[in-house]
Every structure is written in C-alpha cells, then in structure tokens.
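Practice problem: predict the structure.
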Amino acid sequence: MKKIFLPLIALFTLILTSCSDKIMGYSVCLWTDAEKGIYSGEILPVYIKSNISHVYVIRTQNNEKTEIPLWQLTEPVKKGKIKKVVAKYEANARIYASVKLDGLPCRAEPVNTAKQVYRLRKGEVIKILYKGKGAAPMTGGKPLEGDWYKILTDDGTQGWCFSYNLNLFETDFTGARIGASSEADDVEDDSKFEIITKNKWYPDYFRSMIDSKNIDLAKMHPSYRFIVDTEKSKVSLNTSKIHQTWDYAGYTRSGQNEYRFKNIPIVLTYRNADYIVVRYTDETGKPQDLNFVSISESIADIINAEKDRRSMAYLQIWTHGPVYSSTSYGKLELNEDGTFRWTGFKLLVPSVIESGAKSTGSAQVKYSLSKALEQSYDGVITMKFDGMSREVNFLYKLDGQAMRLEDASSAKFNGNTIVSRGTSPVIAYFKKI
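Answer:
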C-alpha cells in the first residue's frame, strides 16, 4: 500500500510539477509579493483552487508554479472577462496607505453608519483597491475631506474606509514606497494615547471620596466620565455641569504629552497612566481645566453600597423607636419609608427649625462622621420639613431606650462629612415610647 499511495505532501508537490497546463481562469493580483514574483495589478493564470489550504496555484512571470493565499487574488474568470476586472483595479494598482488613527473603523458599506467589519491599527499598512461613492462622515456639521475606498488588509480582510485618516502613498513595480515618507506620514507607536482610550476616566474627586469612604451621591454618578471612543470616532465629556459629545477626525500631538483633537474644543494633557487633564473651551471661549483619574472599581457598585449604608442607618433609628417623645421638644414619629411627623417642636423655632415649617417631612442619613465624632455619635440624620426650603441636620446617638439629637446647624462640614460640632448646639433628649 505504501508503494501505491504517496504521502499527501508529496502528492500535492507532484500536482504542482507535473499536472497539465489546463488553466481554470485568470486573476488580478491585489497585493504585491516581490519574493514570489507577483505584483499588484498583474494578471496571473490560475491552475488550482484549494478550499482546504485556502490557496491558489498560479504561474508567475518567471514560469514557476507557486501557492498564493486566496485573498491575494481576485476570483478567477475566463480570459475574455479579465480586462473588465483589470479596469476595476488598475487606477490604484500601486496605491497603499498607512493608518493615522488607532481603531479606525473599516465598514461593510461606504457609509459611516454601516456595520463595522474590522478595526485598523495606527501605523498599519493597507492596500487601496478602488474608490467608491458614499456620503462623507460629518464633524461639526461639516463633511470631512476625503473619499471612500475599498481596502484590503494583510490578513485578507476587505471593507470600506474613509481616506481622511489615511496616508495614501504610491509604490514602484516591486512594491517599494516611492519617495521618502514625510513627517506627516510617519506614524509612531503611541502607547500613551492607547492608555487614554482604554482607561475609564472619572473626575478626580471620585478617587478622594472612594479613598475616604465619604460618598456624596449628589456629586457621584456613573455617567460623569471622559471617553475617547476610537471605534465610533467620538469624544464625550460628561460632568455635573457639562454634557457634550463630538465626532472627532483624528488628533495631533504637541511634545510628548499634549493631544489636540481636530475640530472640537478639547485639548488633553497626559500626566501619567492614572491621571489626565482635559481642557474644555465652552461656547463663550472660556477654557477650563478638568482633572480626571483612572478608576477600575465599579462606580455603580460604590453608589449602591452607599445607598445601602444610608438605608441601614435610617432603619436602625426606625427600629430603635419608631416613636420618640420629649417633654421639651415634642413627639417624633418615624416611618419605615423615610417620612416623619414631629409635633410640639416650638422650642426649636426659629433657632433650628423655621417658623413656617409643618409637622411632616422626610428624613434620611446622607452625611457621614469624621473619625473623631464617631466616638460620640452614631451618625447624622437629615430632616426636610414640608414648608421649609433648607434641610435640618442633627447628630444622633441611640442609647438604650433613648435617642439624643444635637443640632448641627453650625457644625463644620468637609464635603459630605461632619468634622466637628457646632458652638453651643441645642441638645434634645427623647425616650422611645
């Protein structure tokens, strides 16, 4: 049996060297391979197509048969149809391009909303196949300069790419680039910009709140971020006061650390892998510098944990009562849903509670205590009386069958934390009933 059946490799070699010269069709070379002697735009006779090995067997100008990856040639056609195929590619037969923007989308159709089929790397060299017709991408309400081109990557992927972020260049017959590359065409690896696009950037005060475990829910939100989305070519800046998104068309770098995005009012300074400064110029021309830091923790989880802390603290006061009474300061009834009724608080008017305040309102535990105050108090309860615009804060202490409230109107706050008591505060003692 061994003498009758040759090994598979030997059999394929035999086909290459001794098969008939019957040609199955003609193809146009799409990508130059000087080592094998094939050049883009050249017509090549095709003898065999292997869907298993994903290659064509062709004959070169040197009269040698060789294997070529399927993606490197057009689909073989009869001799009478090859001129039409050549005409489709001949205008750009020697045109290649280098990519200026990392993550530049390659799309299924020549339109910016078409499905993305590939993301190009900055500095990647691609083959320009032919020009297409399609609407130019818009930025700032204006169309970008350039054209849509059908392109080919060196792994065989084809798609449509807009030329604004491409450096097109011509090659000679051997595939070598014609002329020295200009400074604008030189694309160096920019690891800093890659860090900027990969990291999650939040306002720097987020880190201070997280490290101190002093979370102000009014200032922390998952949407408060700075994002450079290379896939969609968008820059987003969201803070408590700014909500802006722009289409961007590349960027320029000044020095080693400053990035200017084209056609949008953003200049970014890279400080280190965890810290950037975003300079935003508003519509009035006023610039402002915003500090952002990289945070790996889930902001949503941190917010939920703070909400749970507040709920548990309030429920502790509610379950300890929920009805408290004082001979001097009236009767306080707390409800599980955070509402309350407080009657007989006249001695606290107007020094603590305004004269127009009604007996009903809502309560929550939203502030935290400094380490020093934690020794003497359990927390801070914030009460919002109906008919009263400002909130009233009390330091509280649960003790046996009683609760002590201390007016915090003149207490010192640092962000969301009370760091010291007020001067000569009113102190109210309540017994639960």
